[in-house]
Design goal:
One of its GO terms (biological process) is L-histidine biosynthetic process. By secondary structure, the chain is an alpha/beta fold. It has seven helices and 13 strands. It is globular, with a radius of gyration of 17 Å.
Amino acid sequence: MSTSGSSHSSRAAKKVVVLDYGFGNVRSAERALARAGADVEITSDFDAAMNADGLLVPGVGAFAACMQGLKDARGDWIVGRRLSGGRPVMGICVGMQILFARGIEHGVETEGLDEWPGSVEPLKADIVPHMGWNTVTAPADSELFKGLDPDERYYFVHSYAVHDWSLETANPVMRAPKVTWSTHGEPFVAAVENGALWATQFHPEKSGDAGAQLLTNWIGTL
């Protein structure tokens, strides 16, 4: 009796939904996640998004438009429900920014999902947008950047960022969030690992082999 190939088929790929709410590079995210070994679906279907092993929330464009699109697709409710049950969510670019309390663009303040305190505000730099490859400074115990060279570069495209991190964990049972930083004109938050909620300001799906390894690290935690 042959058992050839059974060891490869015994472990099912993790199911990851890329939330399709009209604001994000969903196809490039799909390709990158598939490359990292996930079973990927692009959808705004509520049940599919709720039941997946992981939910990826992309985002491009303006903060206010992304928030409106997310609400129209019930994405705000999906993210909140998943996190209340400890189910993994990852945000990318503006998909990270909307996880904060508010975004301020052209003097207009828009409420975010308020999973983390803080404001997304314009980058103060000689050249904006911050577009291209940049290094990051990750905590030594980061799971997201595990196995990656500290000098590795990641691909950024943004004009706004979070410049202050104010969330502290008073409960000794809870692990403190792991915050990764980068600098363009001034320091800004480049990534966060906070329980079931992870996010990156840069685009891992456009960051070559390093981005693929980072996504593999996330999928490995699902």
